[in-house]
Amino acid sequence: MKNVKGGLTVLKEVMDRLPTSEKKVAKYIVTSPAESVLLTAKTLGEKSKTSSAAVMRLCKSLDFSGFQELKVRVAADIQSNMDATEYVDIEPNEEYSDIIHKMTMNTIQTLKETAEIIKTSEVKKAVEVLRQATSIIFIGFGASQIAAQDAAQKFTRIDKNVHCYQDVHMAATAIATKGQNDVVVGISFSGETNEAVKLMQLAQNNQVRTISLTKYGSSSLANIANVNLYTSTSKEAMLRSGATSSRIAQLHMVDILFTCFASEEYEDTLQHLDETREAIRFLQDN
Questions:
Q1: Which domains, ranges and CATH numbers included, belong to the chain?
Q2: Residue range 32-66, pLDDT digits in tens
Q3: Is 34 exposed, middle or buried (0-12, 13-18, 19+ CB in 10 A)?
Q4: N- to C-terminal Cα distance for the chain?
Q5: SS3 per residue for 187-240
Q6: What is the overall mean pLDDT for the chain?
Q7: pLDDT by residue (tens digit) across 67-111?
Q8: Which DSSP state fits 147?
Q9: CA 45 → CA 29, 41, 52, 175, 187, distances in Å?
Q10: How far apart are CA 38 and CA 36, in angstroms?
Q11: Can you tell me the distance from the alpha carbon of 40 to that of 145, in angstroms, rounded to the nearest whole number?
């Protein structure tokens, strides 16, 4: 089923990266969502001191089918109050119970926002590319390395030929020997991690198929990749450890990708998971 929420989430995600006229429209919608969904493109352009053309360009920048989709998604946000929760930071010497609650709510908000911006069509493309792949290389550095390793572990368990490299030179060497039947999945929250971008470009030069996993919007990594998967921008609290929200969003997206893949190859996946569980049990029993 097509996602009919996330209009306000997407607007907030890309606000700072929009051209001036489109940013004016986006700000007006975010500030006055209930009014905006009742306006025509022409009237919204006038209210935001732009034009109907700017409204339509905004819809294109958001990758929406048109103004009607934008209004439907914003209206759904209003009805469900999805935009009501804000990210919260901890305080000095705060009660542990309060910290637990705040971190839990931040995580929930991150997952909700990521779910709202997922493009099912891109997930389907990614799954099909992975199904056809002779080999898969997952790349990620810093906190994104955690998501890359998690993805490699999951797909290894279902008999895919998978590699994940922490050393950029080893990754480059491996990618240099790959071709059209292979896949490189680049994970970078910003989409601007130099090592990941360079490796993705190397993959493209070798005609290796590529998938990116970045925060929502345009980035160097996403612009190179054949298939783009996105997470929420995951507005981090000021006091954080290891990009908490963005890491969780990436791991969640990896889980979604893996389970969608598993659904397409259900029987084989179950068999391989049973075999790998048995192997671990063998080690534990001996």
A1: 7-80 (1.10.10.10), 123-279 (3.40.50.10490)
A2: 998 999 999 999 999 999 999 999 999 998 888 89
A3: exposed
A4: 48
A5: ECCCCCCHHHHHHHHHHHHCCCEEEEEEECCCCHHHHHCCEEEEECCCCCCCCC
A6: 88
A7: 998 998 888 877 665 445 566 677 788 889 888 888 888 888 888
A8: H
A9: 11, 6, 5, 48, 37
A10: 5
A11: 45
Beta strand 182-187 with 227-231 is unpaired
Q: Label residue 242 by pLDDT band (50, 70, 90).
A: very low
Contacts of 34 (CB under 8 A, 6+ apart): 78
Helix or strand holding residue 184 (H, E): strand 182-187
Residue/partner pairs of 121-124 with CB below 8 Å, 24 or more apart: 122/227, 122/228, 122/229, 123/229, 123/256, 123/257, 123/260, 124/260
Question: Helix crossing, 96-117 with 7-14: angle to 10°?
Answer: 100
CA separation for the pair 176, 100 (Å, rounded): 46
State if pTM tops 0.90. no
Residue 47: both structure tokens together: 């209210």
Query: Vertex 210, ends 272 and 17: CA angle to 5°?
Result: 125
Amino acid 271 reads Q
CA 39 to centroid of chain Cα atoms:
31
